[in-house]
Amino acid sequence: MASILDPQARGRVILVGAGPGDPGLLTIRAVDALKSADVVVHDGLIDPRVLDIAPPDAHRISVAKSRSKHTVPQEGINALIVAHVRTGSIVVRLKGGDPFIFGRGGEEVEAVRAAGLPVEVIPGVSAALGCAAEAMLPLTHRDHSSAVSFVAGQCKGLADQDWSGLAGKGRTLVIYMGVATAADIADKLMADGVAPDMPVAVLERGTLDGSRAIKSLLADLGPMVEREKVASPAIIVVGEVVELSDAEDKLARWAKMAEAAA
């Protein structure tokens, strides 16, 4: 992938995918971009070791977001990036995972282009790919899945969307940002035709310290997330390929505990 920009040019933006967490999953190109940065505008979950790749005198600006609180609204982030570029700075916009998979990278590229400024995008290992690999969960498999869909679990009008065909036999569904709405997601998928006994996995803090991979059945997704106290960041995988993973079987464990308590 050849750069569209002069590596020595000033006043430019580079959107960089930082991957799912582990600094070892950065691309060589991402490292090179960070080393050239005057300003790093970064998400909240970026490993400090990744930020340390930038020069010591680079200005680091956190624009951390959470489900209920954004320290800087998206319009403010866009304006911040443009303002720094106009001073002649090389601005690295460092985003978790891949900038173009639920990272709002498309909006930021639009804003920079609208300002008439040069921009480049360096892809990153997405959360789905990194977390699934760590859990030995193949998102596709010749015998079990020939299609993969990515959806956002935090969205308005969930009940009004048509998710039929996204999960089921021969298909894998990956849900980002779905922990808080896991029970609703399970109800929605079952209402749209997915079998209650379809395997599901929750991959929590994938590639980070304290990561967990747990699996159960779709009908048990909401209760499992609650009883296991799953917290973000986490992704949900729905499909037959879950059975091939190393994820701990929480349905079997829970059934044994319930039987022992009876």
TrEMBL record:
GO terms for biological process: cobalamin biosynthetic process; methylation; siroheme biosynthetic process. SUPFAM superfamilies: Tetrapyrrole methylase. It comes from the Bacteria. The keyword Transport does not apply. Its EC number is 2.1.1.107. Keywords: Cobalamin biosynthesis, Methyltransferase, Porphyrin biosynthesis, S-adenosyl-L-methionine, Transferase. It is an enzyme of class 2 (transferase). CDD domains: SUMT (cd11642). One of its GO terms (molecular function) is uroporphyrin-III C-methyltransferase activity. Pathway: Porphyrin-containing compound metabolism; siroheme biosynthesis; precorrin-2 from uroporphyrinogen III: step 1/1; Cofactor biosynthesis; adenosylcobalamin biosynthesis; precorrin-2 from uroporphyrinogen III: step 1/1. InterPro entries: 4pyrrol_Mease, 4pyrrol_Methylase_sf, 4pyrrole_Mease_sub1, 4pyrrole_Mease_sub2, CobA/CysG_C, Siro_Cobalamin_biosynth, Uropor_MeTrfase_CS. NCBIfam families: cobA_cysG_Cterm, PRK06136.1. Belongs to the precorrin methyltransferase family. This is uroporphyrinogen-III C-methyltransferase. The lineage of its organism: Bacteria, Pseudomonadati, Pseudomonadota, Alphaproteobacteria, Sphingomonadales.
